[in-house]
Amino acid sequence: MHLTVYGFPNTRTLRVTWMLEEMGLDYDYQLIDLSKGESQSPAYLDINPAGKVPALKADGAYLTESAAIINFVAALKPERELVPDASPFRRAQYDQWCNFAIAELEQPLWTIGKNKFALPKAQRCEAIIPTAQWEFQRALDLLSRGLGEQSFILGEHFTAADILLAHTLFWGMAFKQDIAQENLQAYIGRLGVRPALAAARAKEQAAKGA
Ligand SMILES: N[C@@H](CCC(=O)N[C@@H](CS)C(=O)NCC(=O)O)C(=O)O
């Protein structure tokens, strides 16, 4: 299957490229330069009407939403078990943490980003930022309790839920949010040195430089 990622560095695109690298799959990286407004071009809006990255082309058809793309990529090599499916309960535990990443951990950061720089100036409300920071800290406490002493969120086996969670923690660090929990610091360190992550970062830098 021929895969093309549409993306831009320092965005949720890294979730998809990291996943592809973990899976050992080949893909092209098509840069959509957000700083030049390329996500709003008519050609890209045909791919993703939301005008956002990432998107994935798989044999001529398009997918959007980073979490959905990751699950699709996992299904291309189910033997890797990056999306556990041994039982409905195990799968639901995986979904639980993916949904937590998207709905609870990420949203306060996105609120900060939207109200600092992403929304048109007239739509920004800086007064919301302390509330979003407080919500992020509450979500960190929940994640810390869920992780406990495990290496990964579902135990000792790395899954795609770790990609969503760790990417969002990296994002929190980039936004200079305090992540004080020792187990989360260790988790960030453990995930941050995965060779697939380095390969994904190299791929996006190469696309940017091309
Ligand atoms: N829920 C979407 C969010 C996608 C999204 O908001 N992407 C950002 C970059 S991380 C974007 O393209 N922003 C450009 C814009 O909003 O114009 C996903 O997880 O894929």
According to DSSP, the number of beta strands is 4
Q: Which structural category fits the helices and strands?
A: alpha+beta
Shape annotation: globular
Rounded to the nearest angstrom, the distance between the terminal CA atoms is 24 Å
> What is the name of the CATH topology of the largest domain?
Glutathione S-transferase Yfyf (Class Pi), Chain A, domain 2
**What is the radius of gyration computed over CA atoms, rounded to a whole number of angstroms?**
17 Å
Strand content: 5-15%
Main-sheet strand order equals 2-1-3-4
Question: SSE order in H/E notation?
Answer: EHEHEEHHHHHH
Which second-level CATH architecture of the largest domain applies?
Up-down Bundle
How much helix is in the residues?
Answer: 55-70%
Q: Sketch the major β-sheet.
A: 4 strands, mixed
Bound molecules: glutathione
Low-confidence stretches: none
Count, helices: 8
What's the average pLDDT?
97
User: So what's the CATH class of the largest domain?
Assistant: Mainly Alpha
Oligomeric description of these chains: single chain
Count of individual domains: 2
